[in-house]
């Protein structure tokens, strides 16, 4: 169970560190080609989402690795579930149902991580 946790956590953390970092620092013009939804979203909200993704990535790895407040891994993975529910909602509202594949995979992985993170309690 611990090995499964770390595999999923590493993959999710790498993805969210990359995606969150881009949202946190890049301009709207640089983000639009790969994230079309930023055209109608205030950049302050895009930055907040990016920061939440970065915090989620850190929360998956740091608390279990250090043993300090390991329950934060559960909170981080639950937060990433909510981010993907929001992402799916945005895509469906924009009529982009065909683009939710990655969101569904990330949602499933984060939901699995919620369950796997219970080993740290």
UniProtKB/TrEMBL annotation:
Subcellular location: Membrane
Any Gene Ontology CC annotation: membrane
Record field: transmembrane: 43-62, 69-93, 99-120
InterPro entries: DoxX (IPR032808)
Keywords per UniProt: Membrane, Transmembrane, Transmembrane helix
Major location category of this protein: membrane
Keyword RNA-binding (UniProt): no
Keyword Ion transport belongs to the record: no
Any Pfam family hit: DoxX_2
Bilayer topology term: Multi-pass membrane protein
UniProt-recorded name of the protein: DoxX family protein
Species of origin: Streptomyces bauhiniae
């Amino acid at each position: 169970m611990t090995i499964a946790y770390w595999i999923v956590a590493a993959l999710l953390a790498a993805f969210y560190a990359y995606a969150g970092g881009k949202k946190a620092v890049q301009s709207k013009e640089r983000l639009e080609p790969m994230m079309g939804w930023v055209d109608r979203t205030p950049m302050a909200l895009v930055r907040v989402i990016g920061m939440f993704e970065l915090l989620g990535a850190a929360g998956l790895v740091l608390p279990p690795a250090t043993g300090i407040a390991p329950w934060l891994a559960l909170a981080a993975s639950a937060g990433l579930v909510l981010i993907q529910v929001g992402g799916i909602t945005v895509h469906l509202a924009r009529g982009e149902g065909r683009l939710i594949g990655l969101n569904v995979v990330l949602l499933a992985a984060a939901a699995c991580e919620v369950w796997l993170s219970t080993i740290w309690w």
